[in-house]
Specification:
234 residues, alpha/beta, Rossmann fold, 2 domains, 7 strands
Amino acid sequence: MKLVAYLRVSSETQLDGFGLDAQEAVIQKWTKVNGHRVVRICRDEGLSGTLDAADRPGLACALDALADGTADGLLVARLDRLARSLAVQEAALAAAWRLGASVFSVDGGEVHEDDPDDPMRTAMRQMRGVFAQLDRGQVVKRLRDGRKAKAATGRKAVGAYAYGYRGHGTGRDRDAEPEPVEQIAVQRITELRRGGASYRAVAATLDAEGHCPRRAARWSPMAVRNIALRESLT
């Protein structure tokens, strides 16, 4: 059978170690053993399994392959790669089945459509979806608890680091450290403000001297003001 493989990770560093390469490896092995052929691979990187297909280009790509006849079936490494929400899981499966496609997972084989004479089939599938949703909720809670514990120690817990600083370390030990190149600009702002230069004049000087802001093309007086105030300059 011609299959479209769908791969998904919810973050750049997949928490459970089951990244895109690992998913593709087990999928290729499974298809070889079971006599199927992967004709297209669709990926979603850094997207939550709670998102609908419309918000996941990779999943939409997989369903399109089923709709246009490129593939006859959908294959995922695990059902939780398809969805981490029971409602989304059932909607995605229903969409594939409506297109006349089969659905397979490497860890469970074919995911059969509902059968009124076999209600246990539906119950077991949905129980897997419930536990996938529970697992995601527990992961989110652990991360939230970790951020709270980190913030309680006075370290930065969430969000981007201020200009002049970058993240250092991993997990709960991650905290801000000076960013050498940006610190030069911060020190220059300090010097110019102490010399009586206006925010606009400081911005122009930074541009002329080649000091780069983090995201904009040029320095603005407001960006200079924010850094100056942070450094206790008025």
